Structure formats: C-alpha cells, structure tokens
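Structure in, sequence out. Go:
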C-alpha cells in the first residue's frame, strides 16, 4: 500500500522550489505523483533475481580511435603566421593594467 501524497506535501515541496501553485494544482500534482509512486511499487514486485544490472538498454562500444601519441606541429613554422612572438610564445595585447 502506497503512502498517499497530500496537497500539503506538494505545496511544501513547491514552496521549497520557490514555485507558487494553487490548491487545484496541488491536488492535481498530488494525484499524479501518487500514480507515479503506485507504478514504482508495481515495478518493485517484479522478480529480478538473476537479472544483471544495466546502465544502458543497448550495449555501447567505444567507437573512438586508439589514443596514440603523435608529433606536434613545428613551432618555428607555426610562428611564421603569428604577428608578434618572443621566445617561442605568442605575444598578445595586455588586458590587465
């Protein structure tokens, strides 16, 4: 037997979430939340012994390429495209005084 969700409980949670709801809305959501809890309790009655837990309904396989180190770009060649550089670093305008 499910514990019934009351309008007062719904209004309390709505207040915590800073939501303004009317008495009619509280009654509506109390009924809907009660139905959700009732359904969850039905699921608890299902025998799941021997069923392996899953995190996703479809088995996922890593489809990315193997991570292999590769040489980086040539610093001197890259610096040819930079307007200003010094000691192998890009010079940019100062943003702090």
């Amino acid at each position: 037997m499910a514990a019934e969700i009351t309008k007062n409980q719904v209004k309390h949670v709505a207040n915590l979430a800073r939501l303004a709801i009317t008495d009619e809305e509280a009654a509506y959501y109390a009924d809907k939340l009660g139905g959700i809890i009732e359904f969850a309790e039905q699921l608890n009655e299902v025998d799941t012994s021997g069923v392996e837990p899953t995190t996703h309904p479809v088995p996922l396989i890593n489809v990315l390429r193997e991570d292999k180190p590769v040489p980086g770009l040539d610093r001197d060649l890259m610096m040819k495209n930079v307007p200003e550089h010094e000691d192998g670093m890009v010079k940019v305008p100062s943003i702090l005084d």
